[in-house]
Structure to design on (310 residues):
């Protein structure tokens, strides 16, 4: 897909000079900001979706940096596997990881689960919302129940968990809430309408929250990864809610989740508010969606017609 997009925008390179300038300035400013870091050592970090994918890698990186990690997911057996992997990772000075079984789609259960998490270490310093589900289907083919399931996990789960931890963070005048969104939270691609809509909702929620708690000592970070090499394609939902069960070449060629986790932890240490972790082309599409929407929509239309992209 990325090579196809590159060929489509080739005639318009002269218009893209400002993006290169902005990208360079962003890199320079980011480098300056990264000189000012907080330490993650001893911080209590609750991570949802920690049983696989980005969440698992993020948990490992926080653990490596000395955080008190609370691993959360629906799957006890997978959390046990991740916990054992961390314990056996030769981080002899690390705090033992803890496990919290929590289904973020069960919204009513989240407040009690958060209380359980608070009892582990007496506080929660950082929440990383990494639990998520992907869907892939055209709108005309899709069941409404798929949209409901994707929104329940990807959006309402983030909202419910944030609302459960926020009162104590405000009371203590400190805390950090992180949401693993997606490049598709900044621009939508064909056959991902449910997923992109849920991630757009998360971005809007986090933007509003950031402004509301700015004076309360609470940091809010939105992370927007591009393609990352995980098993998310296999478990993604089809039009009728079944598991896709296949590889996705774009995901297979994506970033290593270990590298993504490293950037996420850097963002938390530097109190970064918003971070896109993606190659040039996805960043270009985000830029075009704002400054040259007609070209962006033209590219999306061509992608939708491609038989090689699903």
């Amino acid at each position: 897909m990325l090579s196809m997009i590159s060929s489509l925008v080739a005639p318009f390179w002269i218009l893209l000079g400002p993006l290169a300038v902005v990208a360079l300035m962003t890199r320079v400013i980011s480098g300056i900001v990264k000189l000012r870091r907080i330490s993650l050592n001893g911080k209590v970090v609750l991570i949802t979706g920690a049983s696989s994918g980005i969440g698992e890698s993020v948990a490992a990186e926080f653990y490596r940096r000395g955080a008190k990690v609370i691993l959360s997911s629906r799957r006890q057996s997978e959390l046990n596997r991740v916990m054992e992997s961390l314990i056996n990772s030769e981080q002899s000075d690390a705090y033992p990881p803890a496990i919290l079984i929590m289904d973020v789609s069960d919204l009513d259960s989240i407040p009690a689960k958060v209380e359980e998490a608070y009892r582990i270490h007496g506080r929660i310093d950082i929440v990383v919302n990494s639990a998520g589900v992907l869907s892939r289907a055209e709108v005309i083919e899709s069941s409404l129940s798929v949209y409901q399931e994707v929104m329940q996990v990807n959006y309402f789960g983030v909202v419910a968990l944030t609302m459960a931890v926020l009162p104590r963070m405000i009371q203590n005048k400190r805390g950090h809430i992180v949401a693993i969104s997606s490049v598709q939270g900044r621009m939508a691609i064909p056959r991902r309408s449910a997923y992109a809509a849920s991630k757009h909702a998360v971005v809007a929620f986090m933007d509003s929250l950031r402004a509301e708690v700015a004076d309360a000592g609470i940091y809010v970070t939105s992370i927007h990864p591009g393609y990352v090499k995980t098993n998310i394609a296999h478990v993604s939902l089809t039009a009728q809610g079944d598991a896709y069960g296949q590889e996705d070449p774009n995901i297979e060629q994506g970033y290593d989740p270990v590298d993504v986790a490293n950037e996420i932890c850097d963002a938390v240490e530097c109190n970064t508010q918003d971070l896109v972790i993606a190659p040039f082309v996805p960043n270009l599409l985000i830029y075009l969606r704002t400054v040259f929407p007609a070209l962006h929509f033209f590219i999306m239309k061509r992608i939708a017609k491609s038989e090689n992209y699903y």
